[in-house]
Design goal:
3 domains, mainly beta, five-stranded antiparallel beta sheet, about 300 residues, Neuraminidase
Length: about 300
């Protein structure tokens, strides 16, 4: 059994965002604590009551869930763990509201994936999509592979739909997003020659790199999109836009002072095109929540 972070029985070290249901209850994960010290899935009601729905045992069921959950219309929760499983490379799991866990997939490394670092995407048909930070092609990285994109269909069948091969992209970074046509978009923090990328995987399974980051400042977090096909995201020191025509623009560069330091999370975008996000402060002190208007500054 994998050694896990210790903590209280109700969980410890929540490292991911929350989701909620139509009654206002919140759901999330902790990376440690629980009955076995390997993390939990929990619910927090509007009245302030916290309940551990499931405690990971740290073995084949998984350990250390670090990502936000997704929830289907029936209330079933889905997520990933970065540890545990048959090969200690993480899992994809399902947990019912009654605390019944089902292991949907255990990662085995190359040619399969390994160590999923971001949350899942649930499409309207009940299919789950996600990325892994390792596994995939042996020859891309002989030690760990370059990661994969995977799908678990509504019947629970797992499939690797793309293996990053280095020259295109490598090491999935942020959660995936999906357009109405079923095409997937995401970010990576590395590849063979550059410092991360923005990629598209079409509904037909064709991979295309939309942009390579070349300045040593890879993207962090995932993308948000507007209705015109433009994407927005962050790398450590700036907020960027990639237009539908492939033009890359810097919208704002953080100066490390009162405006904030490096960013480490995805953005939110409202109906008026205003972007919201967070930064951490240099030297580990403080941090900011910021709002950025649609006005841009070309790179």
């Amino acid at each position: 059994m994998q050694k896990a972070t210790r903590g209280r029985a109700d969980g410890a070290s929540p490292g991911a965002g929350l989701i909620w249901d139509d009654k206002g209850a919140l759901y999330g994960t902790t990376t440690g604590g629980g009955a076995f010290g390997a993390g939990t899935v929990f619910r927090f009601t509007p009245g302030g009551k916290e309940t551990v729905i499931y405690s990971f045992a740290g073995g084949t069921d998984g350990a250390t869930p670090r990502c936000a959950l997704v929830r289907d219309k029936s209330g079933t929760l889905y997520g990933t763990t970065t540890g545990g499983g048959l090969f200690f490379l993480g899992t994809v799991f399902r947990v019912t509201s009654k605390g019944e866990e089902t292991l949907l997939h255990t990662f085995g490394g190359a040619p399969d994936g390994g160590i999923p670092q971001v949350g899942l995407l649930l499409d309207p048909k009940g299919n789950l999509y996600g990325t892994t930070s390792s596994g995939g092609h042996y020859w891309c990285n002989p030690y760990s592979g370059c990661g994969t994109i995977f799908r678990v269909d509504s019947a629970g069948k797992y499939e690797t739909v793309h293996r990053f091969w280095g020259k295109d992209s490598a090491y999935g970074e942020g959660p995936l997003i999906r357009d109405p046509q079923g095409n997937l978009y995401g970010t990576t923090f590395g590849n063979t020659h550059y410092y991360g990328s923005i990629f598209e995987l079409t509904a037909a399974g064709k991979d295309k790199t939309l942009y390579f980051f070349k300045d040593g400042n890879p993207p962090v977090g995932g993308l948000v999109a507007d209705g015109q096909g433009n994407f927005y995201g962050t790398n450590q020191w700036s907020v960027f836009e990639l237009t539908r025509t492939g033009k890359f623009k810097i919208l704002y560069t953080f100066k490390g002072g009162k405006d904030g330091g490096p960013s480490e999370a995805s953005l939110l975008r409202d109906a008026h095109g205003v972007l919201y996000g967070t930064t951490i402060s240099p030297r580990g002190a403080g941090g900011t929540i910021f709002k950025l208007s649609p006005r841009v500054e070309d790179n």
